[in-house]
Amino acid sequence: MLTLTNIKKSVSQHTDVVLFRNISLQLRVGEWVSIVGPSGAGKTTLLNCIAGIQGGDQGSIELDGMEIHQLTNDERSNVRRLHIGFVFQDFKLLPYYSVLENVILPLARDKKKEQLTAKAKSLLEQVGIGEGYYHRLPSALSGGEKQRVAIARALINDPKLIICDEPTGNLDNDNKGQVLHILHTLKQKEHAIIVVTHDEEVAREGDRIYELKNHSLNEVGVKDVRDKLEENS
Amino acid sequence: MDVSIFDGGMTVSYPQNYNLLTAIDPKSEHLLTGIDFSELFREHTEEEKFLIESFSEVRGNAPIVPILQRESFRIPLSLHVTVEKLDMKLDEIYDQFNIPENETISYELQFREQDELQDFSEFLQSVKRVPQDSYNLDLTNLQSPFDGTHLKLDEDFNIEILKEGEGGTLYNDSGKYYTASKIDYIVNNNQISVPIVKEGSPPAYKRVEESGQSYLYDWEAPFMIWQMGTFQAGEEENDLTSSPLGIYSTKEVKTVVDGKELTPTITPGSFLAAPTAGVTTMEAASLIKGDEPIDAIRIKLNHITKYNKEAQERMESLATELSHAGYVVDIVAGSSFKSEKMNVEGIGEVVSPWTTLGISQLLANAWEIDTLLSIGLFSLFGFFWFFGHLGFERNRLDKENDILLSLGWQQRTIRSKNMMEQLLLVSISILLSLGLAISLRLSSLALIVLGCFLVISIILIATIFYSNTRQNDRSNKYKWLASIRYYKNLLLPTMLALILAVCITHLQIGSIYELWTTSTETTLGMFVFDQGLSIRILIVISTVMLSVLVLLEAIQGLIYARKDEFHMFFVVGWTEKAIKSFFLKEVLIWAGISLVIGTVISSVISIVMNIALTGVVLASVTSSVIYLIIVSASVIFRKYR
Ligand SMILES: Nc1ncnc2c1ncn2[C@@H]1O[C@H](COP(=O)(O)OP(=O)(O)OP(=O)(O)O)[C@@H](O)[C@H]1O
Ligand SMILES: [Mg+2]
Fold first, then answer.
1. Could you tell me one molecular function GO term of this UniProt entry (chain A) (predicted)?
2. Which residues contact B428 (CB under 8 A, 6 or more apart)?
3. Of A86-100, A144-158, B70-84, B228-242, which gets the smallest average pLDDT?
4. Cα distance between residue B430 and residue B246, in whole Å
5. Does B564 touch chain A (CB under 8 A)?
6. Predicted pLDDT at B314
C-alpha cells in the first residue's frame, strides 16, 4: 500500500545537513508501524515527506500506486485530503471552530455539510465524544478530548493511511489508553497506520518497530524498544 | 478704403483701428505687477532726436506722447484680393483716348479734364473682366498697435515688409483719439444686459467722444505719438492676470454668441472687454484727456489675510464710503474672469468674460480644505506611528507587567502606570496639535475634526491596553464571523488603520474634485487649482502609499500570527487556492466593514464641508476600490504553505 524506496532528505541549516538516506519501508493494509528515534533525527520530516508536505531529495514514495513526488502541489493536497489522516501531538484544532466544524474541516469544501455532519457525529461517537461537546470550542476541551476530536477529524475522509506524530505526547495515562484503543480498532478496520512516538507502550502496539537514528531507519525487536528509548532520552 | 492708381501700382490704407491706451503710474504699477516699464523713460537716440525735431517743425511743435507697446499684441486683419484681367488690348486705350505712343497712360491722364477722366473710368468699367485668381492674405502678425508697417505686395502677391522711409511717411502717427464711457450694464434678476448707446454698424455700447486730428488731414495735431519700445505682461504667470483691473489679461478674451466666437471688433464703442494695447505716462495722459486724466485708482485694503465675512464687510464699508463721496466703485477681488451670459442689445445672448468676486469664497474654502488635509495627513502619520508604538508597547508591557505582578504589584497599579505613560504621550501630541491649529488660525470645523482624531486615539489606547490578550473564556462558538470575532483584538487595529486610510483618501479625492469643479469656473480659480494640483496629487499618492505600507504590515502580522493555522489547512489537504479563498473571504468581510464605516464617516464630513454629491460619490467609489484592491492583492499574492 505504501512503499518507500531509498529515500534521502537533507535540510539546509547553514550548510546542507543530511537527515536520512537510503530509507526503505513497506506498509500493508491493516498494518501498524511504529517509529522511534532521538529528538531531531528527522521523524516528523519523514512523515512530512510521506504525506507530500515536504519533498524528498531522492528515492520514491508510492501510495496506492501513486508516485507522491511526481504529483503537482495541488494533486498532493488532494491525496492528503482524500487518502491520508493526520494526528498531531498538539492536536492542531482551529480555535474558533466548534468540535463538529473541526472534524468536517478537511472535506468542508468537497461535500455537503449535512452529509459530513452526519459522518462526523458517528466518528465522534466512535472516539467517545458525546453530543454535548459538538458545539464547544476546542479551548473548552481537555487534552484527551482534543486528541480524540483530532482523530475523528483524521478519519473524516476514510483514509487508507493514518499518520500519527506523537499522538499521546501531551496526554495522561488514561487518555493515552483511550487513544491507543481507538487506533487499535482502526487498525482492525484495515487502515494502515504509522505512529511516531517516544512512548514504549505506544511503540509496542506496532506490528513492526523501526528506529530512525544516525540517518537511517532500522527495524528493532520488541524487547529492545525500552533500551532504545532509554538510550535516546 | 482709399485706392489710387499710379503707374499700375495701387495703394491700400489699413482700415482704421482702435486700441486701448492706458496711462499708468509706472512706479506703483511696476511694484504691483512686476512688469518693467522703464523703457517709457529712456533717452531718445540721436536718430530719434533728429526725426522728432523735424516732425515737430511741420506739426506745430506738438508735444510727444511716449508709448510702450504691448508685446505680441496683434490686430486681427486680413486682406482679400481678387485679381481680374481686363479683356482688351492696351492699344485700344491709346487709340480711344488719343494718348501719344511714347507716353504712359497715367502721365497723360494727369492733363485731362474731369469729364474725360469720367469717360475713361466708365470705359474701364465697361470692359469685360476675366477672373484670374484670388488671394487671402493674413496680415494679423504684421500689424501692431500705435505703429505702422508699410507692406508691399509683389507681382506674385508675396508680402514684403518695407523699412522706414521706403514706403511712405509716418501716416500712422495719428493724433486722433477717442474717449469712451463705461458700459452701462443693467443687472436685472441676475441677468446682465448691455444696451446700445448709439445706433450704427456696429452699434456703440459706450458713449464715445472723438477728439484730435489725424496728420493725414491736418498737420496741426494736439500731440505726436512716439514708440518707446515694448513691455511684456507676464505670460509665464499662466492664466492669471497680473493686475486687478485685468488690463494686461494675456488670456485671449473670448466672447461667444450662439456658439460662434466673436473677434473683438476694433471699434471704440464695442461692448467687448479689450486689454490694453499700450501704456503711457500720466503726464502724456493729461495732454489727451486734459486736467482730469485719472479714471481709476486702485485701493488695497491692508491686513486682509483671508477672504472671509470680516474681509467682505470691510471691503463693502469702504466701498460705500467712497461711493457716498461721489466715486464709482468696483470691487475686484483677485481679478478673476468668469464666463457670464449677458444680453447684448442688437446681438443677442452673449457669453463674455466677467470679473468676479466669487473666487474669494472659493479661495477661503480651498484654504480651509487644505488645512484640513494637512492636519489629516499629519494625524495619519501620527497614528501610524502610534499604532506601531502601541503594539510594541503592549508586548513589552505584558512582559514587564508579569515581572511586576510576580513582585507583588497590584494589577490596578500596573494598569494605571501604563495608562499614565500613554496619556502623557497623548497630552504632548494634543498640545502640539493645538499649537499648530492656533498658529494656522483654524476654523471651528477644523478644530472639531482635530478633536475627533484625538478622541479616536484615546479610544485606541483604551482598547489596546484594556483588552484582554488571554483570549475568550467562551466555550461555545460564535455563530457568525467566528474567526473574525475570535481574532478581534488582532483585527481591530488593522481595521482602524483601514478606516482611517479610507477617510483621508476619500476626503482628499473629494476636495480635489470640489476644487476642480468650482475653480474651473474662473480664471484665477484655474490658476490656483493648477498651481496646487501637483502638490495635491502628491499628497494623495503619499497618503495612499503610507496607508498601503501600514496595511501590508498589519496583514503580514495577521498572517504571521496565524501561520500554524494555515499550515494545518495545508496538512489536512486543502489546496493553496482553497486556503487563499478561505482567508480572502474572511479578509473581505472585515475589510468591507471597515470600508463602509470609513466611507460613511468621510461622506458625512464631506457633506458637512459642502462638497457636491457627485464628488462624495466619486471619492467613495475611488477610495473603496483602491483599498479593496490593495487588501485583496496583499492576500492573493502570497504563499500559504
Ligand atoms: N525546514 C527545515 N529547515 C531546516 N531544518 C529543518 C527543517 N525542518 C526540520 N529541520 C531540522 O531537521 C531536524 C529534524 O527535524 P524533525 O522535526 O524531523 O525531528 P524529529 O525527529 O521529529 O524530532 P522530535 O522528536 O523532537 O519531534 C531538526 O534538527 C530540525 O531542526
Ligand atoms: Mg517530531
1. ATP hydrolysis activity
2. none
3. B228-242
4. 46
5. yes
6. 82
Q: pTM for this one? A: 0.59
Instruction: Give dist(CA B495, CA B593) in Å, integer.
Output: 8
B472–A94 C-beta distance less than 8 A: no
CA atoms of A149 and A141, how far apart (whole Å): 9
Question: How far is Cα B121 from Cα B91, in angstroms, rounded to an integer?
Answer: 16
What share of chain B in percent tops pLDDT 90? 9
**Percent of chain A that is helix, strand, coil (3-state, to 5):** 40, 30, 30
Tell whether A197 is within 8 A of chain B (Cβ).
Answer: no
Three-class SS string for B201-245? CCCECCCEEEEEECCCCCCCCCCEEEEEEEECCCHHHCCCCCCCC
B211 strand-pairing partners? B177
Q: What mean pLDDT comes out for the span B372-400?
A: 60
- Which of A71, A137, A155 would you mutate first to test chain B, the one with the most B CBs within 10 A? A137
- What ipTM score was computed for the predicted complex, to two decimals? 0.93
**CATH class as words, domain A2-93+159-232:** alpha beta
- pLDDT category at A146 given cuts 50, 70, 90 is very high
Where residue B187 falls among pLDDT bands split at 50, 70, 90? confident
Q: What contacts B157, CB < 8 A, 6 or more positions away?
A: B81, B135, B137
Separation of CA A47 from chain center: 7
Burial B286-297 (b: 16+ CB within 10 A, else e): ebbeeeeeeeee
Does the Cβ of A40 fall within 6 Å of ligand 1? yes
Query: How far apart are the CA of A219 and the nearest CA of chain B, in angstroms?
Result: 28
**Do the Cβ atoms of B474 and A105 come within 8 Å?**
no
Give contacts of B 473-492 with A, CB under 8 A: 474-478, 482-483, 485-487
- Cα separations (Å) of B496 from B79, B236, B591? 72, 46, 10
Residues of chain A above pLDDT 70, percent: 100
- Residue B304 exposure: Cα atoms within 13 Å on the Cβ side: 17
Q: How far is A151 from chain B (nearest CA, A)?
A: 12
Tell me the three cell numbers of residue B253: 478674451
- Ligand 1 in reach of A44 Cβ (< 6 A): yes
Instruction: List CB contacts (< 8 A) between B490 and chain A.
Output: none
Q: Which A positions 58-97 lie with beta carbon below 8 A of chain B?
A: 73-74, 77-82, 84, 86, 92, 94-97
The Cα angle at residue B609 between residues B604 and B614, in degrees rounded to 5: 70
Q: Which region among B362-366, B550-554, B623-627 has the lowest average model confidence (pLDDT)?
A: B362-366
B-chain residues near A77 (CB < 8 A): 570, 573-576
Domain range annotation of chain A: 2-93+159-232
CB contact, 8 Å: A114 with chain B? no
Q: Is the CB of A100 under 6 A from ligand 1?
A: no
Q: How far apart are the first and last CA of chain B?
A: 92
